[in-house]
């Protein structure tokens, strides 16, 4: 299992944060994580989505400081880093999610 | 001179809008347009930026409904579509620009 890297939010640029959110599948994952605070890879995306695709999307979200992933038993559990992300980019996540509706 | 297409904002997805903003050069162009309401291609980007690069960035911004371009004499003048964009994505542009500072 590769090492999970969680950046310090001060090292995440605004462009990188927007890029992470600029994809409908990743927007769906983030919106799901607001509703349901923990998701494993198989519940993060629509059924039938290839594992490698889900993994890539989660990697992009993790690299932008939007999610943290922890290994719990045999699973990787993903959670939003709401507080960290909002401290770095005030109001951005809330505004994006409000516009997704 | 190719035809300038300005989309109806209802046809612009949130992902497309975020993608247009998810680039430091395009963010700079948008921020400049807030300060200075009209820019031609040569003043939109840092000196020395290739014309084709500037043109590509302006095309992405135009396709996302962020700018309108009009032909005035021998120049193309770019303006922000603040009102249209804000009606479609309330608060998004202001939040992004506040986070750029």
From TrEMBL, chains A, B:
Domain HTH arsR-type: 6-101
Keyword DNA-binding found: yes
SUPFAM superfamilies: Winged helix' DNA-binding domain (SSF46785)
Keyword field: DNA-binding, Transcription, Transcription regulation
UniProt xrefs under SMART domains: HTH_ARSR
PROSITE patterns assigned: HTH_ARSR_2
Keyword Transcription: yes
InterPro entries: ArsR-like_HTH, HTH_ArsR_DNA-bd_dom, HTH_MetalResp_TranReg, WH-like_DNA-bd_sf, WH_DNA-bd_sf
One example GO MF annotation: DNA-binding transcription factor activity
Source taxon at top rank: Bacteria
The protein's name in its UniProt record: ArsR family transcriptional regulator
Organism annotation: Sphingomonas naasensis
